[in-house]
Amino acid sequence: MADRGASPPSLPDDWPEHPDPILALNRMGSFDWDLDAGVMQMDAQAHEIFDVRPDEYDDRPETLGMRVPPGEARRLDSVVSQALKTGQENYGTYFRIRCRDGSLRWTHTQGYIRRDASGRPHRIIGIVRDATQELRDTEVRREQALQENLRRQQTNVVQLTTAALAHARTVQDVIDVLKDTHGLTHLGATSLVMGRVEAGRIRLIAEGPAGSFVPGTELTRIDERYPMSEAVRTLSPRFIESPEEFAERYPELWRGITGLKITSAAYLPLIVQARPIGAMGLLYSDRRGFSAEERNVLVALGSSISQSLQRAMFYEQEMDLAQGLQQAMLPRTIPSVHGADLAVRYRAASFGGSFGRDIGGDWYDLIPLPGGSPTGGGRVGAVIGDVQGHDTHAAAVMGQLRIVLRAYAAEGHPPATVMARASVFLHELDTDRSATCLYAEVDLSTGVVQVVRAGHLDPMVRRADGTCRRVSVPGGLPLGLSAEFGGLDYPVGTIELEPGDTLVLCTDGLVEQPGADLDDGVETLAALIAVGPDDVRDLADRLIDVAEERRGDDDVALLLLRRRRPEGPRCGGRLKQLVPPGDPRALSDTRSMIRTAAGAWGARHRADEIELVADEMITNVLMHTEGSAVVILSVLDGTERRLRVEVEDSSSALPRRREAGESGVSGRGLLLVETLTDLWGVEARGGGKCVWSEFLVPKDPGTG
Fold first, then answer.
1. Which residues are CB-contacts of 486 (< 8 A; sequence separation ≥ 6)?
2. For residue 212, pLDDT beyond 80
3. CA nearest 629: which of 689, 573, 585, 679?
4. Lower Cβ count inside 10 Å, N or C end of the chain?
5. What is the pLDDT of residues 119-161, one digit of tens each?
6. CA atoms of 100 and 84, how far apart (whole Å)
7. Which is it for the CA torsion 236, 239, 245, 246, positive or negative?
């Protein structure tokens, strides 16, 4: 209710005495509403605004109902009534009127309320004006503000994405950035697809959410009727603004993605130096069409992605070359040594900010030597080394040096002579590289180790009781420098390995840490070895894991040799057979050898199982690698007698269990091996691996 005791309100001070001409000039009409008499008089401009002729209006507000729709009338009445009741001096609101041609027009009214001495309202004087253009201008400004805000958001996404792409190294890194919450999802895309140009075709390398893959699009020709193909072929983007357009232009693709409820899409060519390297598609489910600004933003985004993808492709090519060269230079397999457990590992350096061939010159090698005891163990040369530099030249020098060292050692030269000749060889290569190296000649029957060291780290020995320490041995200059400075004298140090002791050789990448002293790194490594697993393979894995965690910028080579205990298993027989791919005769001969050996070694009752498991292991190598299978059969005589089957190959990929399905004929290999053998496992062998199985057989060879 109005406060009847309030002082009467007044019109604005600048309200003119005769306002009609001024209002008309401003396209405004006026009205005078006598609340007591229920009469509202309007001037000619107000008649025009309400679109009523003078003869149609009888000064009654109710008559305006012909122009004010019911809903608008109720809202207008509510505003006026509220102002009258609450003692307001004025009110204002927008409402719509329906013109005589049926169109709706926005109108604004402003009323000033006159009250008597008691505060009772008795008169309203006000104005009305056509607000259509005003609201249209306001809407335009609002839309412009929204568009500007959208452009800022999109530009921000481009900037954020470009910044994130700067840290992407691999192609998968690029894809992950684009799918990340800070990537293209901010643009509202439902699905992202990306293809890479390979030999005149487009290979799909990234697809959208689960279930969005369209069969037949994994590899497509550039001349096919697909939007990515057209973008690559024409070097221009393809914008699809509606589902109908999508279905009409690309019916085959549309049928495959109908379930995604796509409403529009943008396919961008990825171009570097005027050459297409791929294409990317953004699919939307909540929008139709693209404004000119949005198209420009997407094209700019495509340009940024193109540069990042090109860098990633170069990086992967360089990395593949580096890793391939490194693996080619390292030993493909490590020979089995009677009387020793062996483990070798190599970890490439973490690739830094540059995209050069960051490959190292670290290497290891194991060289079987003549001599040794047939019962106590053989003789072997163990080599660890590091050529100066991290590039393909360092790897090439390493490969030559490894071969030379192996040749000199296999010829039977003493350790000091082997090292001196290797140094002369490196000097005569006329290269600017030097190399550190350690060569250890191990007699496993006696445990005596002769060590020569050319500027390399001292060896470490882990004793059978678990303690570990660095063993200081005399040394000479690094290889290549000793010949130049006349220092070809390499003193020989001697270490004695007791049964159960482990010789540890590594390169400095395993002990060097930024900001830490080298001696501190050696002590840390010794403590880590002391608490590590007993098995040399597990220990090697643990040490390499630590190197991975540190993510150092140097590569790591590691060689572990553990002298077996005399009471441990000893080989009582050994056979070896090479099975090359595509040679059925070799496979048949190997099966015959396995069956014959099983009978001769007291395992006739398990010959079928042994042959079946071996056949499965060999077949797996021939089917899933590109090289030959090396089959080794041996008898281990210890507390238990076991027949061991080893199958070596040059692939580092580990076997994995697969589901065969109800009618599958493959995928049961590992299950079969696990079921029929007493023990089985996988060991790394240089650049490849060895899958082995063991079968318990009676002690007495005659029982079978």
1. none
2. no
3. 689
4. N
5. 899 999 999 999 888 888 887 888 888 777 777 776 777 777 7
6. 31
7. positive
Question: What phi and psi, each to the nearest 5 degrees, are found at residue 377?
Answer: 145, 165
Q: Phi and psi at residue 442, in whole multiples of 5°?
A: -110, 125
- What percent of the chain clears pLDDT 70, i.e. is strictly above it? 83
- Indicate the residue type of 336: S
Average pLDDT on 103-113 reads 92
pLDDT at 529: 93
The beta strand positions in 339-455, using DSSP E, are 340-347, 361-373, 377-387, 435-443, 448-454
Please give the mean pLDDT across all residues of the chain. Answer: 81
Residue 363 CA to residue 479 CA, distance in Å, equals 14
**The pLDDT of residue 358 is above 70:** no
Q: Which long-range contacts (CB under 8 A, 24 or more apart) does 537-545 make?
A: 537/341, 537/343, 537/683, 537/684, 539/343, 539/502, 540/343, 540/344, 540/345, 541/345, 543/345, 543/506, 543/510, 544/345, 544/347
Examine the pLDDT at 253 and tell me if it is beyond 70: yes
What span, in angstroms and rounded, lies between the C-alpha atoms of 647 and 627? 12
Q: What is the 3-state secondary structure (H, E, C) of 507-528?
A: CHHHCCCCCCCHHHHHHHHHHH
DSSP 632-678: EEEEEESSSEEEEEEEEES--PPP------SS-SSS-HHHHHHHH-S
Q: What is the DSSP string of 171-219?
A: HHHHHHHHHSTTTGGGGT-SEEEEEEEETTEEEEEE--STT-PPTT-SE
Burial degree of 86 (CB within 10 A; 0-12, 13-18, 19+): exposed
Residue corresponding to tokens 């205990």: 565
Choose between 323 and 653: higher pLDDT.
653
Provide the whole-model pTM: 0.48
Assess contact for 398 and 426: CB atoms under 8 A.
no
Q: Do 642 and 636 touch, CB atoms closer than 8 A? A: yes
* pLDDT at residue 324 is higher than 80: no
Distance CA 62, CA 43 (A): 17
DSSP-derived 3-state class of residue 431: coil
Mean pLDDT of 237-259: 89
Are the C-beta atoms of residues 511 and 459 closer than 8 Å to each other? no
**Strand, helix or coil for residue 166:** coil
Provide CB contacts within 8 A for 219, sequence distance 6+: 201, 202, 203, 204
**477 contact partners, CB below 8 Å, separation of at least 6:** 423, 454, 455, 485, 487
**CB-based burial, 351-362: b 16+ in 10 Å, e otherwise:** beeebebbbbbb
Residue of 298, 226, 222 lying closest to 266 (CA atoms):
298
Residue 108 phi, psi (nearest 5): -120, 140
